Amino acid sequence: DGGITQSPKYLFRKEGQNVTLSCEQNLNHDAMYWYRQDPGQGLRLIYYSQIVNDFQKGDIAEGYSVSREKKESFPLTVTSAQKNPTAFYLCASSRRTTSGGADTQYFGPGTRLTVL
Amino acid sequence: QKEVEQDPGPLSVPEGAIVSLNCTYSNSAFQYFMWYRQYSRKGPELLMYTYSSGNKEDGRFTAQVDKSSKYISLFIRDSQPSDSATYLCAMSISGNTGKLIFGQGTTLQVKP
Question: Could you tell me if A20 and A79 are in contact, meaning their C-beta atoms sit under 8 angstroms apart?
C-alpha cells in the first residue's frame, strides 16, 4: 500500500518542550511539505523540501525546524520558540515537476498537537 | 486581503440538492486549481485538478475556472450525506516550486 503515514496521531506537549512529528512516504515522491491547520484558517505552509538535503521556509516557519536526510522522511520539530503550537499538522508529498507546473499533493492523516 | 478567499459556511442542504462551492483569488498568475475534500480529523484528499480556464467533470463533481473573473467553483450534483465534509480550494503559480495556496475551506452538511 502506497501512501503517507504520520505519527503519532495525537501528541501532548508541556510548555517549553520540543517535540518531533514524523512523516514517512513510500510514493517515491521527491517533494514533501508540512502544513499547519487551525480552525477557520485553512492550511498554512510551514516548510517544504523539493529534494533530499534541501528545504525552504514556508509562510510560517518561525518556531519550527525540519530535516530531509532521506527521500521518504521529512520530520518536523516544533520548538519551544513556537508561541502557539496547538494545531493540526499535515504532511504532504508530490512528484517534483520538471515542466514548472504544480503536481498533485497527497496528504497524510495528520497529527493533532496539544500544548498543556 | 488574503490571496484566496473562501466562505467558511457552514452550508447545509437537503440530500439530492445541487451544491455550489466557490473561491475567489487576487493573483492573476495562478494557473493550477484544485479542490480537496477533508473529513473531520482526517487529511485532505484531492477531488479535482484543473489547469487554466474551463470546466472539468468527474462523476457528480464539476470544477469550473473563470480566470477573467478570478473565480473558481465546485458543483456537486445529487448531493449525499457522505459528501458532508470541508471543501478546500487550492491554487498554484506556473513555474513555482509546487507551493499551494489554500482557501480556508467551506464546511458542507448534507441532511438526509
Answer: no
- Which residues are within 8 A (CB) of A79 and not within 5 positions of it... i.e. 6 or more apart? A18, A63, A64, A65
DSSP state of A74: -
What is the distance between the alpha carbons of residues A116 and B75, in angstroms, rounded to a whole number?
Answer: 41
B26 reaches A (C-beta below 8 A): no
Residue among B96, B100, B31 at smallest CA distance from A105: B100
CA distance B18 to A114: 38
Residues B16, A76: Cα–Cα separation, whole Å: 42
Instruction: Round to whole Å and give the CA distance between A76 and A81.
Output: 14
- DSSP structural state of residue A73: B
What is chain A's pLDDT, residue by residue, as a tens digit (116 residues)? 569 999 999 999 888 899 999 999 999 998 999 999 998 778 999 999 988 999 999 999 999 999 999 999 999 999 988 889 999 999 999 887 666 555 788 999 999 999 88
Nearest by CB: A102 against B32, B36, B41 = B32
Chain A residue with the nearest C-alpha to that of B9? A40
Name every residue whose Cβ is closer than 8 Å to that of residue A110 and which is 6 or more positions away in sequence.
A6, A9, A37, A88, A89, A90, A91, B41, B42, B43
Residue A11, C-alpha cell as written in the block = 501528541
